[in-house]
Specification:
Protein name: Response regulatory domain-containing protein
Domain Response regulatory: 7-134
Modified residues (4-aspartylphosphate): 67
Pfam family, one: Response_reg
Organism: Gemmata massiliana
Strand order of the largest sheet: 2-1-3-4-5
CATH topology: Rossmann fold
Number of helices: 5
């Protein structure tokens, strides 16, 4: 598996934040495919190859960058559903959100998120946080798809 095999699914309803995250991950040197889901339901559809993504191949390693406050299905519910399903419970999920409430952080870890990153409100700090996330993603090991037994 090469770094380029990994697809990063960005579930973010704020178009401005989505653009900044994508651009700064690219600026940090990531060459991975980044797919933008505009809400939690769209992220679930992408992961499960349903809805508008029914025709896509559900193979290859995937990492989810997940915002919490989204329409239709919020990020906490997306996380809960993914971790409750044996088909997706090993999917790495990094919560990337402006919510820094310690109770929310604890709840996401209890539900099984891999990491929790708070997006700073200040633009320069936001850009720096995403750049560092990009550097982290460039070295982290992500499990590939495990063939069925």
């Amino acid at each position: 598996m090469t770094d380029r095999d990994l697809t990063i699914l960005l579930a973010e309803d704020d178009e401005g934040h989505a653009f900044l995250v994508q651009q700064n991950l690219i600026d940090a040197g990531l060459s991975n495919r980044i797919v933008h889901a505009k809400d939690g339901q769209e992220a679930l559809d992408y992961i499960h190859c349903t809805g508008t993504f029914a025709g896509r191949s559900c193979s290859g390693p995937l990492l989810l960058l997940l915002d919490i406050n989204m329409p239709r299905v919020d990020g906490v519910e997306v996380l809960r559903r993914l971790k409750a399903d044996p088909k997706t419970d090993q999917l790495p999920v990094i919560v990337l959100t402006t919510t820094d409430d310690p109770r929310e952080v604890r709840r996401c870890y209890e539900l099984g998120c891999s990491s929790y990153v708070t997006k700073p409100v200040d633009y320069d700090r936001f850009v720096e946080a995403i750049r560092r996330l990009g550097l982290f993603l460039s070295i982290v090991q992500i499990p590939g798809e495990i063939p069925p037994m």
